[in-house]
Design goal:
Distance between the termini: 78 Å
CATH class of the largest domain: Alpha Beta
Number of strands: 18
Helix content: 40-55%
CATH topology of the largest domain: TIM Barrel
Shape: elongated
CATH architecture of the largest domain: Alpha-Beta Barrel
Number of domains: 3
Low-confidence stretches: 1-21
Bound molecules: ligand C2E, calcium ion
Structural class: alpha/beta
Length: about 425
């Protein structure tokens, strides 16, 4: 039995240990049973050399399901869904296999997306049902067994419904990108000393005909799990640069100087990690005739998962004149580490800190310290999520440079953002509050 090694198996194990000190390889003799139907499963195997027969039933009633050779994986089904073996495995000739422990497989599965786990469960379920059906062909009196878990149980589960919803959302989002359904809104960034608008952050919106306005929290993460974020990212760059031209025309029309004006564009980690990201960015700015100096790239710590590549890409962008802001600063687990290793241009303090600024002494100490550190490194700070005059006043006292938040303005469609540039007094309400 697989879980209770026989004397022979035990001896084989001892031989394995002698030959293969890490004990991850097993030798099987010709005709040796590797596991039998009904055994509990605690390991899977990868064939290094030799051949293995997979079959159901016994003796004359046995039915061959497969013959596997070098490179093939087997015995995984039972450990994926923690059930007993639904087929047997036997070495056809001398056979050498790498042993994969249940823990090794389980760890990989647990760290995969819920969708992958569910798809695995459903296809295993079908595979087992098919094996059971084959057994009834060779041994009709057995009759078709009732599955332990009916397939409808998976389909009705909340997890399955959530996965279906995500797939539908993803397909809708794919068509939205194809059909140009996305749009950008712009939220002003103010110099907290002069209270003048210095730039805008472009933020993505999806006015979906069926779902209504979908917030980015709902779909950006989903797009980031797939490669969909890449065409979306291209779309965002394209339209942000085109809209920057509109802002510049507005300033020219009003006779206002705008060489320091900028647009902040959120760049997702996956997008930033593309090998040709820099070339695409440069090509986009050239296409629209805008200067690198007027574009800030907002990136989060997630880009540092590939640290060397990220530092290299940031260096390239900065050398070409683009500024790089570290967004959501303070929420990652190694923010200070990256500050030491990589030069950037600006720190954007996460809005969760600003939210508690006037109610939590600890948040206040942390925000004050972040601003001090940034200034000592020669970096300006942006505070996002400013909602009250008290938060703004505290940030001003602390020396924060730029502010963004509902106190000044919600994100606006382009036409309204353009109007704001010409009527900066519309933001003046917070002065008296
Ligand atoms: P983020 O980059 O941190 O963007 C700032 C978010 O804070 C925006 O949410 C903005 O509307 C919100 N915000 C600004 N001021 C306030 C305030 O005073 N109070 C509160 N409660 N919220 C405020 P939004 O537009 O819903 O975007 C959420 C996140 O979605 C963004 O966080 C960013 O991570 C992602 N996102 C949005 N647009 C894009 C985009 O174009 N590309 C990428 N890659 N991600 C985007
Ligand atoms: Ca941002
Ligand atoms: Ca942020």
């Amino acid at each position: 039995m697989e879980t209770n090694p026989t004397v022979n198996e035990h001896n084989a194990l001892i031989t394995d240990i002698a030959v293969f000190p890490d004990c991850n390889t097993r030798l099987f003799n010709a005709g040796e049973t590797i596991f039998s139907e009904g055994n509990s499963a605690d390991k899977a195997y990868i064939i290094e050399s030799g051949y293995v027969e997979i079959f159901v039933g016994t003796g004359h009633d046995s039915l061959q399901l497969n013959v596997l050779g070098p490179g093939d994986f087997f015995g995984e089904m039972g450990i994926i869904d923690a059930s007993t073996r639904s087929a047997s495995a036997k070495a056809i000739g001398p056979c050498r296999c790498i042993v994969v422990s249940a823990a090794q497989v389980a760890e990989r599965i647990e760290s995969s997306s819920p969708m992958v786990r569910l798809l695995l469960a459903v296809s295993l379920h079908r595979n087992r049902a098919y094996n059971a059906y084959l057994k009834t062909l060779t041994n009709p009196h057995i009759g078709l067994p009732r599955p332990a878990v009916p397939e409808t149980a998976y389909v009705r589960s909340q997890q399955y419904q959530q996965i279906l919803d995500d797939i539908k959302l993803e397909s809708d989002l794919q068509s939205a990108v194809r059909n140009d359904e996305l749009s950008l809104v712009y939220q002003p960034l103010l110099d907290l000393n002069t209270r003048k608008i210095v730039g805008f952050e472009s933020l993505l919106r999806w006015p979906c005909p069926q779902r209504g306005m979908v917030a980015p929290q709902q779909f950006v993460a989903l797009a980031e799990e797939t490669s969909l974020i890449l065409p979306m990212g291209d779309w965002i760059l394209e339209h942000s640069c085109a809209d920057l031209r509109h802002f510049q025309h507005q300033f020219d029309y009003l006779g206002l100087e705008h060489s320091d004006f900028f647009i902040s564009i959120n760049i997702s980690a996956r997008q930033f990690q593309q090998a040709n990201f820099f070339d695409r960015l440069l090509a986009c700015t050239h296409r629209h005739g805008v200067n690198a100096q007027q574009i800030k790239l907002e990136v989060t710590e997630r880009i540092f998962l590939n640290e060397i590549e990220a530092i290299d890409a940031i260096g390239k962008c900065r050398a070409a004149g683009f500024e790089v802001s570290l967004d959501d600063f303070g929420t990652g687990y190694s923010s200070l580490n990256y500050l030491e290793r990589c030069e950037i241009d600006c720190l954007k303090i996460d809005r969760s800190f600003i939210h508690k600024l006037c109610t939590s002494d600890r948040a206040k100490i942390l925000v004050g310290s972040i601003i001090d550190i940034a200034h000592q490194l020669g970096l300006p700070t942006v505070a996002e999520g400013i909602e009250t005059p008290a938060q703004m006043a505290t940030l001003q006292t602390m020396g924060c440079d730029i502010g963004q938040g509902f106190l000044f303005s919600h994100p606006l469609p382009l036409a309204e953002a353009l109007a704001l540039v010409s009527q900066p007094l519309a933001l003046g309400g917070f002065d008296q509050a």
